[in-house]
Amino acid sequence: MTSLFPLSLSEILLVIIATTGLGCIISGRLRPDLAALLVLVTLGVTRVISPQEAFSGFSNSAVITIIGLSVITAALEQTGAVRWVAHHLAGLSGKSETRMIAVFMIAGALLSLVMNNIAAGAILLPAAVRVARQAQIPASKILMPLSFGTLLGGMATLFTTSNIILSGNLIAQGQRGLTMADFLVSGGPMVITGLLYMLFIGRRLLPARETAALTTVGVVDLRSIYQLDQRLWEVRLPPDAQIVGTTLAEANISALTGTTVIAIWRGHTAIFHPTPTEQLRGEDILLVLGREDRVTQLEQFGCIIGRNSTPGHHLNLPIELAEVIVGPRAPFTGQTLQQLRFRTKFGLTVVSLWREGRSYRTNVGTIPLAAGDALLITGPLDRIQQLAEEPGFIVLHTQPAEQLVGRQAVIAGVITLVVLLAATTGWIATGEAMLAGAAALIISGCITMDDAYRAIEWRVITMIAGLLPIGIALTETGLGAKIGTLLTSKLVVYGPMALLTGLFLTTVLMTQLVGGQVTPLIIGPIAISAALNAHVNPQAIAVAVAIGCSTAFLTPIAHPVSLMMGPGNYRSGDFLRVGLGLTVVCLLTLLIVMPLVWRLNSITP
User: Fold this and answer.
1) Which residue has the higher pLDDT, 64 or 374?
2) Quick check: 327 and 370 in contact, CB under 8 A?
3) Which of the four, 8, 11, 57, 285, has the lowest number of CB atoms within 10 Å?
């Protein structure tokens, strides 16, 4: 019987270091980028690999490709090129639920061919919410198909993080890297079968669920939109109230009681969106949002509590409302609104926070923000539009802005097409092509150097560069070959397709736990070693593993683009119910397509 044992000292150290690092990432005890750096340093210090090899991840072609692609994606967004495409694609959706699902899945897949999956989802999300609500179709019927469409599109292109990493793994082991054509012929059919599954089966399993807050702009009734009948209170300030003469910031009402001041009535004047520097006066009437037991705490300051008690005052407010999603890689995740000084910085008030189907209306400012949170905000329309420009915030609008194609958008589009053509034809190495394209976009003025730096997700780059040495260590120590031999001894007796299927399913399961960016760093070197040991085409195995990294349909945490779909008010079980069938469809498609497009028993150096 083939066994991993005995292991050398360096192999034992590698197992301990890798499992500890992954354990910290999965458990959330350490930030993924910090855990990756600790893995990198420990591998070098213990001499499992040389210091030069430990730091080689930062110069790896896969990392360079991802950096260049990040800048290209940001330039396409900033110039409005992809928003113009998204706007016109959304216009094709009509009012039919089936047609909307088809349009947004196809749009997500097409955009994912040339840009980051998360960026594609973020661009299409506001349009999807808007057209769904205009057609009075629950957003939950559209947003999950949209996220799945971007993931399916990622299977058919080289320009997905996991696919780039797998190509780099092949090159590191002396094999031919992957091309755009390799993924188009293998992953393209996944897009078609996945779309058909969602149109005929998956859409019937989608929940008909909407968040309590419909995104809107204009004159609205807070009671009907936010269902706040039991949460809105009028608080009158007698002249002798303790907080009279102080500013809202000095009164510290939010921190002391966990409530939010929405507006102030002063005589015949209404002050909506009061700033923290607004001074409170005697006979002011505050419109306060919060639970009764929290609001009544204001009585200790001499305030008088009531609900719609003053003649002439009612709760129909001419107030701008918007729903804002916390992006998957927002730089402020883990911080509270108070720590961000949100109200002071943006001039907006958060009245509610939605997370995993639950609404939080009390102490909202003290809740650490997480990816996928939906913030219901009030404030001036120009401030809401300014918030949309801030990294990490995805503002959902009901009214589409006019989409025009400017000169910069055309230049960005042309440069991107040239880069893609150069990379896919092999005229220039992919990493060099992406970096050259990023430089061309900066020189042409499509994006500034500062914005280019901001566009690069350094946490992701650090995590990938820090974990890439695990692959080097697996190869250098021989542990990857041992694990590969163990796999081949169990599976290859049933043929190359058994090995391919086993590696695909292992990848899919691991992706649900640690995501599609970490999984290829661990599975990739082992899968390629297994393929070489079994004399199975390593490029075919690498493509199957890469597709498995994008098969992130079973849990919302498997891929950041699914976390982004907060307005669908999904629960974890929704993804399992709909995604299980799609995963099976992808597996069956893989089993049919791979023998047709690949010579599985051939090895291409």
Assistant:
1) 64
2) no
3) 8
